[in-house]
Amino acid sequence: MKAFALTTAALSALAFTSAATTGSTASNNFTMSYPPARGSDPGQALTGPCGGFNQATNYTDVQSQQQMNFTVPSSQKGMISLFYLTAENNNTSWKPLANATVSGDDTTVSATVNFDGKASPDTKGTVKAVFFRTDSNLSDKPLYQCADVKLGKEVKSTPSNAASLPIASSLLALTAVAALLQMH
Question: Which N-terminal residues, if any, form the signal peptide (predicted)?
Answer without folding.
Answer: 1-19
